[in-house]
Amino acid sequence: MHKSFYYLWSSISFGKLALSLYTMTITLTIFSITKSATFASVIMLTHVIGKLLSSFVFPLVTENKPLKNILTVSLLTQFIIISALLGALNINVNQVIQLTLTYALIGLAGFMDGFVSPSRMSLVPEVAEEAKIGKANSLISTADQTFALLGWSLGPIAVNFYGGMLKAFIPLN
């Protein structure tokens, strides 16, 4: 396997872990702000709807742009959106405006995440030897599920343990 495969493999793995922790943290924050399980549960729904919408746009974008550029722009944009999301949770405005902005940013982050997953998987043949593509896909799939399991099972423990620090970082109105 090429060295670039291992970079791709680790980015997919840690991306899955980060998504689960990000989702839990934002869900906890929204629940703390609204005291509503319904509003908190809409977080993942909004992310998935954004991701679904991007699946319709992705084929059009790949006709004109290289996959590495799509992946780079998507990841950078997600970082900017998540930074803006932290800002949206820190502003002192009407709660309706704050939640609308938060859900819009989460949907946009989901939209950009919809470009990341297929771009990464499409890059596997470029970074793995042809004879080892099956092994590469198997390693990625195993790591993907393992990190998702770790994130969703150990994540609540971490969020519970560091919840006080989270509340210090994101003031709750």
Task: Provide a descriptive summary of the structure in words.
With 173 residues, the chain is mainly alpha-helical. The chain has a single domain (3-169), classed as Growth Hormone, Chain: A (Up-down Bundle), CATH 1.20.1250. It is 87% helix and 0% strand. It contains 6 helices and no strands. α1 runs parallel beside α5. The longest helix is centred in the middle third of the chain and has 33 residues, at 95-127. The radius of gyration is 17 Å and the shape is globular. It starts with a helix and ends with a helix.
Question: TL;DR of this structure?
Answer:
87% of the residues lie in helices and 0% in strands. With 173 residues, it is mainly alpha-helical.
Which terms summarize this structure?
173 residues, mainly alpha, Growth Hormone, Chain: A, 6 helices, 87% helix, globular, transmembrane helix, cell membrane
